[in-house]
């Protein structure tokens, strides 16, 4: 297990490093922060002074080495816009994003998985077909279209809920629904497929032939084995919580991390964008690591086979 964890941590570290290297290069090749932050009419002396202040006049390789040195000291840089540490700006926005993403994740898990399992246990029924149709609608409609439709129906036409902002729990309902509906559809469809595949396995038929009650077969044999691929999908959803909030927070003017990404990229606020990408990449690799550990708990065969690799 120690060797397995060491390998996974090493791969996770390399993944984060590759993401940060790619972001570092692309951000500096996509536009000059001095021109964007100072404006097109800024004098050349001011632009040169700005570049010298932030080390943008150094060769790219020297900027990259300086950036790696900062990361080793846990220094995530300073915002070019207001001079605050980038990590402080990110952490200030995290609670607002979690206020949307965590309830949305709970809705995905509490509705999507039970709906998919129920549909698999009642295959070819009206309920099964209803789950299939609803799940297809959920994961095919883009989040920005869904968000605008929800605003049009519930905020403009019915005037039941506010269209945007952050001023109480009512403002969070439409963003949470927008974030969760697609994931509910994906989880329902995936859970149904995984459960149907498991129910067709020989060990399920053997358990039935032994005269075990159907409920025991489902809970003790089918669900644990169907949970292994489902955990993979859930882990991906957990890791992409922050990234998935970018569009939704922009639509509903929600002051979270997703909106900060849009503003920082538009202004080429390099330190803030790099810090945000580091947080997103780290959350995704940590989620994948937790998924790998969950495999061993759900399926002892996987746990016993790992040391052999």
From TrEMBL:
Belongs to the binding-protein-dependent transport system permease family. This is ABC transporter permease. Pfam families: BPD_transp_1, BPD_transp_1_N. PROSITE patterns: ABC_TM1 (PS50928). It comes from Paenirhodobacter populi. The keyword Membrane applies. Keywords: Cell membrane, Membrane, Transmembrane, Transmembrane helix, Transport. The keyword Glycosyltransferase does not apply. Residues 94-291 form the ABC transmembrane type-1 domain. One of its GO terms (cellular component) is plasma membrane. InterPro entries: BPD_transp_1_N, MetI-like, MetI-like_sf. The chain crosses the membrane at residues 12-31, 98-119, 131-156, 168-188, 230-251, 271-298. It is found in: Cell membrane. Its main location: membrane. One of its GO terms (molecular function) is dipeptide transmembrane transporter activity. It is a multi-pass membrane protein. The lineage of its organism: Bacteria, Pseudomonadati, Pseudomonadota, Alphaproteobacteria, Rhodobacterales.
């Amino acid at each position: 297990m120690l060797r397995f964890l060491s390998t996974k941590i090493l791969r996770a570290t390399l993944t984060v490093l590759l993401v940060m290297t790619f972001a570092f290069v692309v951000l500096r090749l996509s536009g000059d922060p001095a021109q964007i932050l100072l404006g097109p009419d800024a004098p050349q002396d001011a632009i040169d002074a700005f570049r010298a202040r932030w080390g943008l006049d150094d060769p790219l390789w020297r900027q990259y080495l300086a950036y790696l040195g900062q990361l080793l000291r846990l220094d995530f840089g300073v915002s070019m816009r207001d001079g605050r540490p980038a990590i402080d700006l990110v952490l200030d926005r995290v609670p607002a994003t979690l206020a949307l993403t965590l309830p949305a994740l709970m809705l995905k898990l509490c509705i999507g998985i039970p709906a998919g399992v129920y549909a698999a246990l009642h295959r070819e029924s009206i309920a099964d077909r209803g789950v299939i149709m609803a799940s297809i609608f959920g994961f095919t409609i883009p989040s920005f279209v869904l968000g605008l439709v929800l605003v049009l129906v519930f905020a403009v036409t019915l005037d039941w809920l506010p269209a945007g902002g952050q001023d109480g729990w009512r403002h969070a309902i439409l963003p949470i629904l927008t974030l969760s509906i697609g994931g509910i559809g994906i989880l329902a469809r995936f859970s149904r497929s995984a459960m149907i595949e498991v129910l067709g396995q020989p060990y399920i038929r053997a358990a039935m032939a032994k005269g075990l009650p159907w409920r025991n077969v489902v809970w003790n044999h089918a669900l644990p084995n169907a949970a292994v691929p489902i955990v993979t999908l859930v882990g991906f959803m957990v890791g992409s919580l922050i990234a998935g909030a970018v569009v939704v927070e922009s639509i509903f003017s929600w002051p979270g991390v997703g909106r900060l990404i849009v503003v920082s990229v538009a202004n080429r606020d390099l330190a803030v964008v790099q810090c945000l990408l580091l947080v997103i990449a780290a959350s995704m690799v940590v989620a994948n690591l937790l998924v790998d550990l969950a495999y061993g708990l759900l399926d002892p065969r996987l746990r016993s086979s790992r040391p052999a690799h």
